[in-house]
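Sharing a chain and its predicted structure for anyone who wants a worked example. Both blocks are below, sequence first, tokens second.
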Amino acid sequence: MQNTRTDYQLALQQLTDSALPTGAFAHSLGFETYIDRELVADEASFGRWLGAFVAQQLTYSEGLAIRFCYEGVDLAELDQLLSGTLLAREVREASCKMGGRLLEIGREVFPSPELDTYRTLVSGGRAAGHQPLAFAVVARSLGVPLGEALAAYFFATVTSLTQNAVRAIPLGQNAGQRVLRNAHDAVAAAVEVVPHLSWDDFGAVSPGLEISQMRHERQRARMFMS
């Protein structure tokens, strides 16, 4: 039976819920390095970092990978290309760890032939199992339109990062909610940009973000794995 709009919306809410046990609470994806250097220290500075992260890495790497998956690009090839765009080892490993958990959750909760195909590639060593691709495979099999899938994935990432910043900076809970509200425009803009990008844009990320992610590996004191 084909999923109705209500069916996929409910499934999408479950798939992007902050309580989904993918391990996102353990990753800062580089903002902890900015905290250590005292460049991110409050609501305003974290909001600026988050805006840059959404406009760059989320848009040009993960968001574009989700679109290519929806367009039917070979998953093994796309997985390898995504590994190549994530230059920082910790971030690359974080993507695979969270992707692996999402593949297992999807197998139990949202099974599909498409998901089985990706899991087989991963188990056979032909793919790493990145989070955005695992999400895209599940969302596409549920009948979620691309625009809604992008918006949900982007905002779920923003939410987990903000929750982590609330603990790490620390920010107050109300400040975290203000950051999330202020991120709406950045997420909406990213959703609009992704459909107009090309293969030449894949992996075009700010060097500052990547350098901070690489420096985190050698940071003396830290709360997060990336």
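Comments welcome. The chain has a mean pLDDT of 93.
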